[in-house]
Specification:
about 150 residues; 3 helices; alpha+beta; two-stranded antiparallel sheet
């Protein structure tokens, strides 16, 4: 009698674990695909596919920043666990059509450009796409969405 109960419990446990794994596998592509394919610049959609600095420069030019000057790039990781600052930063990104949520814990490349007398532009790329962008005062005093 005790053997059948234990075997039955093990079978139920295995089925539950497999169910959770299958559900997780099914949800991952849905969460990953939540990242936008385009962002609105003015009244036109702009594709977010980007591989390198030349694609970033084209994006910044489309945003109205003439002749962006490349400064540097960094390899970063989008934090998996966000503090208040990163949560606020993602809200800034969401205002312009981006969302960093699908990229938590993922590597990204940060491109920094000088775009006018007082502004630097920062664009993040991951998985062959632009995932975030902002401009900030050169002295770091203010950060805001692109034009």
């Amino acid at each position: 009698m005790f053997r059948s109960v234990k075997l039955k419990n093990i079978k139920i446990t295995v089925v539950c674990v497999l169910g959770v794994l299958l559900l997780s596998a099914a949800c991952f592509p849905v969460l990953r695909s939540a990242a936008p394919d385009t962002v609105m610049i003015g009244d036109k959609p702009y594709p977010l596919q980007a591989e390198d600095s030349s694609d970033v420069e084209a994006f910044l030019t489309a945003c109205g920043y003439e002749s962006p000057e490349y400064l540097f790039e960094n390899e970063i990781t989008v934090p998996k666990h966000w503090n208040d600052i990163y949560t606020s930063y993602n809200e800034l990104q969401r205002q312009q059509g981006f969302d960093l949520t699908p990229y938590k814990g993922k590597p990204a490349t940060e491109y920094v450009y000088f775009v006018d007398d007082t502004l630097n532009a920062v664009v993040l790329l991951s998985d062959g796409r632009i995932i975030a962008a902002h401009v900030s005062e050169c002295d770091g005093s203010e950060m805001r969405i692109l034009n």
